[in-house]
Amino acid sequence: MVKTLSRLAKQSHEKFIPPQTVYEAIPIKEIYEDGIFVVGNPAVRAENRVVRFMKGLLAKLGFRRKGEKPQTYSKTFRFDDINYAIASKEEQEGIFLEYSELLNSLDSGAASKLTVNNRRINKSDFEKCILMPMDGDRLDEFRREYNQMLIDKISGGSGMIQEKYVTVTACKKNYDEARAYFARIGGGLITHFARLGSVCVELGAADRLRIFYDFYRQLTIDKGQLTVEDICPDTMEFNKDHFRVGEKWGRVLYLKDYASFIKDSMVSELCGLSRNLMFSVDIIPVPTDEAVREVENRLLGVETNIANFTRKQSERNNFTANIPYDMEKQREETREFLDDLVTRDQRMMFAVVTLVHVADTKERLDSDTETLLTVARKHLCQFAVLKYQQMDGLNTALPFGVRKIDTLRTLTTESLAVLIPFRAQEINHAGGVYQGVNVISKNPIFVNRLNLLNGNGFIFGVPGSGKSMTAKREIVSIMLANPNADVIVLDPEREYSPLVNAFGGEVIRISAVSGNHINAMDMNAEYGDGANPVILKSEFILSLCEQLIGGKGLGAKQKSLIDRCAANVYKAYIQRGYSGDAPTLRNFREELLKQVEPEAQEIALAIELFTDGSLNTFAKPTNVDTDSRLICYDILDLGKQLQSIGMLVVLDNILNRITANRSKGRNTYIFIDEIYLLFQHEYSANFLFTLWKRVRKYGAFCTGITQNVDDMLQNHTARTMLANSEFIVMLNQSGTDRAELAKLLNISDLQMGYITNVDAGCGLIKVGSALVPFSDKFPRHTKLYQLCSSKPFEFQTETERKA
């Protein structure tokens, strides 16, 4: 027997005592707050609870009785899924090799368990988290429509969540040794999963117990802290080939025959059943030197058998006898195994594959079992039902960290890595905004930009792909669900006015002849980000003056004069505590005229057209509500002369609102449609770039919307902004745009298929490091769809169209 197996058998050996209660059927002896469990034969735990508590307390303090045996400790880590199913062949090979490295890194002094937990979403809990409560205002009608849409999306999906765990089990003398060991092991696991693009985190006691509570009870409780008593089901009944937990029926299967060739999709297909199930692989790594000796001994035995066969045939004068096929095959496989260990950086591992699934009825359980067996047979593997071992099988399949089944299979690293647990990423942020449905898993996508390092984003797509619809749907979600957030829209095509008006927002139409005015000199006390706000405002006025005089660079004297006049104009306003009317560009020009330097007179003359002339729309006091929760700046009618100046003034006005909101603890979401227009003007592009970098610390998030990806990426400023944005929605793209996005965001050819000739509302969404194909089909019969749709004549009757 291999020494590793012999050692593990001695460490885990305990006297078996049949459990008398449900509590004793769960193999948890002691629990520590950091998630370390003492596990083992549950019935051995049948001693006075006070004694157990004192033993646990003494163990924490480092005291142990003389001659007391070491205990078995386990720790669970949860890791995120990655996009293996939609990766290219080259990327899949890279993931496979990296996953093999992870398996090779597992400590041979411990046992590991990989678990895929297929968990059904608790519909009542899910609805409680995502549905918008009624507020008793004019928007409740829209909240009902939006809630119904979310319910329909959930009902139409698989209703399942997959969570993946690694449970490490080691025998240590005391808790302190176990804690130090798991800290070291955990660091290595986190590093290896990070190389795969997955995030690995260790689970505390409450999180680990929640896994078992969800499996055993499948109920909802409000208790934050769970105990072993809380997770215990009301009843547990184990039969020959199935078990009952409360009102649920369950069955444990194990992998009996392992095919010589297995596709890497087997695990995802097995776990694709929309039922509560857990698929586990227990892994026992063997030290390389011990493995080589074991395989050499096996090869020696095979060679001995062949030699004996040849000698016997010779004694019978049968000199032409061939070596039997089974012996030759055994020798060939053993040699290949030895070569793998010696020359190909493979490790020898023992594995046990178990699967437990649960159903509401016995008939459904039998049907699900047959489905799982059929999937396994399709991959030339054979699963079998554990007979008279359902309790041991259940405790083995669940991520406690124990192994009670001895159906071990000898594998190399690569043959074990074929059971790869990765399939598709999920994006489900708490408190997030609905962004469509994951095409692969059929689960809804919820994104909370507060969770991202940089929540700024872009929405790309050809005309008709659903860019505006995507932006408007997010605006609707923010306005209905987040009362602590404001929304600002920069609208160059007058597409957002119906939605803004319906939601009681403010539409500000800006043009040379409009009655709406925005004071370019508006400023609040928070504008300076903790410093003197006049300093930052003076920089804006310098840029504005350069634009007003034709984009020519200002000299040193001119800059000094502008800075002096800006400080003088704001002096009285600051002394009043930023109350009353702010100074205007007219006041600024009057201050310039008071200066004796001839350069001041030149500047005053150059800006006269925009202060006292026909283009003075930004030189008057603000007469619109810039404090509304929803503001739309309509810049469609800005003429050629006012366009560059108007965009600069609007961006500065937005910055005023962002800084004011930060002092109030409010978030601000800015949507800039046809953002490429801002990059056509140097000063507005530079101001936007500065704003893009700064808004994160203000609790604000910018979103740029455009179809001209290729043109925009030729601008270095725009390219830098895109590279630093963690939220990107890519709808149907043209050929040149696809090539540029693939190069910049490292999108594979297979993933590119999701943004090539697809329907409106379908594409890829990038959130942080996650890249997920999505579909967002908004129900057409709703008022929200009519407000958000940008398709002309879509809601006209046939008679109206003919007319």
Shape: elongated
Provide the structure class.
alpha+beta
Considering DSSP H and I runs of 4 or more, what fraction of the residues is helical? 40-55%
Please provide the count of β strands: 24
Q: How large is the share of residues in beta strands?
A: 15-25%
Low-confidence stretches: 45-49, 796-803
State the end-to-end CA separation. Answer: 90 Å
Our count of helices gives 30
pLDDT averaged over residues = 85
Briefly, what is this?
Helix content is 43%, strand content 18%.
Keywords:
11-stranded mixed sheet; 24 strands; disordered C terminus
Description:
- The protein is α+β, with helices and mostly antiparallel strands.
- 43% of the residues lie in helices and 18% in strands.
- The strands form two sheets. Strands 1, 2, 3, 4, 5, 6, 7, 8, 9, 10, 11, 12 and 13 form a 13-stranded antiparallel β-sheet that branches.
- Strand 7 and strand 8 form a beta hairpin.
- Helix 10 packs antiparallel against helix 11 and helix 19 (585-593) runs antiparallel to helix 20 (598-606).
- The longest helix has 28 residues, at 288-315.
- The radius of gyration is 34 Å and the shape is elongated.
- The termini are far apart.
Topology (elements, then pairings):
Layout (H helix, E strand, L loop, with lengths): L2 H10 L15 E4 L5 E3 L9 H13 L9 E9 L9 H16 L6 E10 L2 H8 L9 H17 L3 E13 L2 H21 L4 E3 L2 H12 L11 H4 L4 E3 L4 E3 L2 E10 L8 H5 L6 E9 L2 H28 L9 H19 L4 E12 L2 H17 L3 E4 L4 H8 L11 E4 H5 L15 E6 L5 E4 L9 E4 L6 H15 L3 E7 L5 H6 L3 E4 L23 H16 L7 H20 L9 H9 L4 H9 L1 H4 L18 E5 L5 H25 L2 E7 L2 H4 L2 H13 L5 E7 L2 H5 L2 H8 L3 E4 L4 H11 L3 H4 L9 E6 L2 E6 L7 H6 L9 H5 L1
Parallel strand pairs: 16-21, 16-22, 17-19, 17-20, 18-19, 20-21
Antiparallel strand pairs: 1-2, 2-3, 3-5, 3-6, 4-5, 4-10, 7-8, 8-9, 9-11, 9-12, 10-11, 11-13, 14-15, 14-24, 22-23, 23-24
